[in-house]
Amino acid sequence: MSQSPIRPLIPLLVTAGILIGGNGLQGTFISLRGLSEGFSPSVIGLIGTGYNIGFALGCIYVTRVLRSIGHIRTFSAMAAIASAAAIAMVLVINPWFWFLMRLVAGICFAALFATVESWLNARVTNSNRARTLSIYRLVDLGSVTAAQYLIPAVGISGFELFAITAMALSLSLVPISFADRTSPSPPEAIRFDVKALWNISPLATIGCIVVGLTNSTFRSLGPIYADGIGLSVAEIATFMSLGIIGGVVLQYPLGAYSDRLDRRLIILVSTGGALVASLFLAGIAGSNEALNFVGIFVFGAFAMPLYSLCSAHANDHAKDGQHALVSAGMLFFWSLGAIIGPLFAAVLLDHFPPEVLFIYTAAVLVLFIAYTVFRMDQRAGVPAQSRRTRFRSLLRTSFFFNRLAGAEDGDTKRPAAKKTADGN
Q: What tens digit of pLDDT does each residue of 355-374 get?
């Protein structure tokens, strides 16, 4: 009986699930624990910004580390450091120390996701790529959603969730340890050229910053908003989960239409839908639990596909040899928005009611709609029949996910696996 082509990938997919779940748990929990420790929203926003600064740094330097010491050693080192950073936060309850630990965690998670997805990219073939991506998306959705409900189940006041996060990071080493001993060759160096990406697509560049300013702000400060309107810890977990689950609903319908129409029209539809949901949450939902659940679900449905739509638009304009640059640059510009957004919105939350979070989000989206209309007047769209790329639903875990999704087929060469005595 022949072996399933997915079976060798299971250890890597399990590892990815543990990492994604642990990361999602920590993001929500740190915000709620910060509130319980008496930290102001602006301080919590600063702590969230620390993670995003670290993530941006990790994106820039991870390929150098992988090329220097290989996949297994990189993963082991980063998992150990991230685990230590998680448990250290319960030992020292201080916002500046938490900022530093979250910065360290951001560097580590950027490297961990890049390592796993680079490894997966070297293992998948055209025959199992679609199944692998489907499983990966299910792992992402399931692990993040399940992790949210650990918070009300365990509680936010003790050390337990810090310990569970550290345990998850340590246990992520186990599936990889049981995998085969082959490891892919070190990846090609990734070039970050912000000017080149701007020249390829100013709209996609601004779009990625907008996604960082809005979606990342929701992930960092959504728990503070939900707590401010009086939701319980269990309801906050549901609120955050619905925003994430909603992001799956319209990914492929919007993507399918964007492949047939001017992508910028679909970007406008997606942005407009997120704007309407933001205004609903800011002006109508109030403290009503059901209305907030509906509003955040709709917000996620329209806001979450924006990154993938902007990536597809940038790749429409990219030339041969530029797709790797696009995937790295898009993630970098998203990181810039994710650094600024939570900090600015958190300062607003210090001085205004919780609804200001979605007033801020709506203001950013209005500006992006205006800029999109301006760009449509400045540049003709790429006809559907002339495009060499199609819409791909992308995770913002690492730039290697673009390669895994096949967004660079024909543009990069997948390195062959090699085997050494220690698996590197």
A: 999 999 999 999 999 999 99
